[in-house]
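On clarity, I found the account of how folds are encoded harder to follow than it need be. What matters is that the chain and its backbone geometry are given together, residue for residue. For the editor and my fellow referees, an illustration may be useful. For illustration, here is how one protein appears when written out as sequence plus structure tokens:

___
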Amino acid sequence: MLEAIMKNFKAKVTGAHEALFERLTKVRTGRANIAVLDGVRVDFYGTHTPLNQVANLSVPDPKTIMVRAWDKSQVKSIEKAIQAAGLGLNPVVQGDIIRLPIPPLTEDRRKELVKQVKKFGEDFKVEIRNFRRDANEEAKKAEKDGKITEDESKKLLAGVQKETDAGITKIDEIVTRKEKELMEV
């Protein structure tokens, strides 16, 4: 019972870290990163298809993303999908290749993005605290139902708190790393 509660809690915390990391990869930093295009869907013969399934994506230099359409007839729909995604990128079409120059971020925009990153971090800290609350309630219910002893319950609560602290520290590290990346010129 103790192991199951703790294992479930740890899995949720790890999932929160992965979700935060994934969300932060979509925050544009002024450097080319194909993860920015993860949410782009192309109208591919009537089906909304992820961009990476209709084109080859690469980063030839730190300021450019290159999109090479597999089907040359789809270049226009790929261009439209990128523009419609609202990423602030202006595609430059050259035959079957679409170049996406990454504009440099202004100081104000960098500060806005840092605020956004901090908010994401806070949201995930709240999520981890909610996981802690759920695990604590589960432990107290198990103790009340006689499935675990009072000592086991206290040990579990202490373990959950320790994991919560570690999880929040890791979120702080992820956010700090992203802030540093954003503020580099």
Notes: The domain at 34-101 is CATH 3.30.1360.40 (Gyrase A; domain 2).
